[in-house]
Amino acid sequence: AGFYVMRNGWREDDPYLFFDGGLFGSMHQHEDKLSVLMHAFGKPLLVEGGVGFPYGPYPEYRYSVSTFAHNTVAVDGFGQARRYLAPDKGEWVHPYPYTAPLANPWQTTGTFDYVHASYHNGFGPQFIPVEHRRSVLFKKPDYWLLVDRLEPHDPGKHSYEAFFHLNAPDWRR
What we know:
Elements: E1 3-7, E2 16-20, E3 36-40, E4 43-46, H1 59-64, E5 73-75, E6 106-108, E7 112-119, E8 130-139, E9 143-152, E10 160-162
Antiparallel strand pairs: 1-2, 2-3, 3-4, 5-10, 6-7, 7-8, 8-9
């Protein structure tokens, strides 16, 4: 399905990272490919920036399913653009019947986990042609190394913005 979990045990305080390298989906979609969620020391560290909003034409809901509410990147101020590819829904879901997993490189051993996936569906409604590749290495049990590569497929110059939503409810104290 394209969802990967890197963990070092099953106790409440064991670290784990969730990585979304999957397709868009057929019913409930977020523009969050290559996003990560992280938990360690018994609490969430990287979280989604917007959750719990009702469905509908509300700004809070539109934000909660956007790239900007997830731990991934935007290009030139625009989020991922899979929803603008409505005619090409073959990019949205895994073909049925499910005969094989996605081709994302994935390796897990006793000392490390590694995954790599890419997003190539452009950014913004005008389809800014930049490919985002993300690799995550988990050196068990100590740290994760996250590497992003953004490759434009046009001659233009682009700006890139990475989002990391820290779980910091008491940041004002």
